[in-house]
Amino acid sequence: MRALVVNCTLKPSPEPSNTEALASTVIAALKGHGVEVDVVRAVDLNLKPGVETDMGDGDEWPGVHEKLLASQILILASPTWVGHPSSVAQRVLERMGAMLSETDDEGRPVAYNRVAGVLVTGNEDGAHHVIAELSGGLADIGYTIPGQAWTYWHLGPGPGPDFLDDERGHDWALSTGRAMASNLVHAARALGAMPVPAPPS
Fold first, then answer.
1. CA-CA distance, 73 to 118, in Å (whole number)?
2. How would you label 47-61 residue by residue, b for 16+ Cβ within 10 Å and e otherwise?
3. What is the pTM (predicted TM-score) of this model?
4. What is the pLDDT of residue 93?
5. DSSP H/E element including 105
């Protein structure tokens, strides 16, 4: 089984990413279940605006699209900015929109029988709103969202320290991340054993 983590931080490599730091703990949990994990830091790529799989002229989305199709599990990881997902996360969802018109050999949308979860960090409140926005978009595209397929970290209302700068709240975020990983893996296995059929015509 394979998983893809798309880190939608606004910080290009090699700048430290709080979102990456929390994601690394979920990645470790996934690997503990025998899952192979790929990571994409979307801000490092030339992802052109649009809703097609290939926007041409140096567009690097097709490589991400290949990784999506090779993975049974997707984790979309985003910081919270002004109470919303990052602009990079929105760009990723928009590009994933092309998958709505792609089907497999049995006529199923290509996101069917794949599971997705959401991971959020931020030094402001709004994590549940970000989880809801991203989960809703992923479900629209066709992903299955298991129960409690998310984790997040922040320290309450208003601005504050970053995940990498403050140990408070880590235990809860890591425990929730382990549950997230377990729920994603077991839901993916269940769908593998009994796939959802193509929508009725």
1. 11
2. bbebeebebeeebbb
3. 0.94
4. 97
5. none
CATH 3.40.50.360 is held by the domain 2-193: yes
Dig out the tokens for 170 from the structure: 């880590």
Contact 136, 84 (CB under 8 A): no
Is it the case that residue 38 has pLDDT exceeding 70? Answer: yes
Instruction: Name the nearest CA neighbour of 33 among 199, 187, 138, 159.
Output: 187
- Structure confidence by residue, pLDDT tens digits, 151-168: 998 876 767 677 776 687
Phi first, then psi: give them for residue 11, nearest 5 degrees. Answer: -95, 120
**How far apart are the C-alpha atoms of 97 and 134, rounded to whole Å?**
13
In sequence order, the β-bridge partners of residue 119 are 77, 151
Sequence-separated (6 or more) residues with CB below 8 Å from residue 169? 153, 154, 155
Q: Which two tokens stand for residue 84?
A: 């919303």
